[in-house]
Specification:
This protein is mostly helical. Helix content is 61%, strand content 0%. The chain folds into two domains: 51 residues, no CATH class; 37 residues, no CATH class. It contains seven helices and no strands. It is elongated. The N terminus is likely disordered.
Length: 111
């Protein structure tokens, strides 16, 4: 079962309204239907459940894709390339300052 102790105990909507959140998470077909059809609704009305629903019952930080993407930003060359693609209109000095701030933040958080 998923670790959902960080969100409310019961589902506040739909098929499993009033039931423990594990009911929703363990019903793969319903969970996928919600992801495909109600993601915006959940994000707006029940933000505490949004990431649980969208990550199949796991925190975003527990998903392999999230971990792979996050680790890319620890690499200086990737951060530079990302900045150039994400904000090509920035002048050289602007993105260099931004990159220095991001690099400093990454080093202090992961050292």
């Amino acid at each position: 079962m998923a670790d959902v102790s960080f969100v409310q105990d019961v589902v506040p909507f739909g098929k499993y309204r009033g039931k423990p959140i594990d009911y929703l998470i363990n019903d793969a077909d319903y969970l996928h239907w919600i992801q495909d059809n109600l993601a915006d609704f959940i994000q707006q009305r029940h933000p505490e459940l949004y990431h649980v629903v969208m990550n199949n019952g796991r925190r975003a930080s527990e998903t392999p894709r999230h971990n792979r993407l996050q680790s890319l930003f620890l690499e200086d060359l990737y951060r530079r390339a990302f900045c150039r693609v994400a904000r090509p209109e920035w002048e050289e000095g602007v993105w260099r300052t931004f990159l220095a701030e991001v690099s400093h933040h990454a080093q202090t958080r992961h050292s």
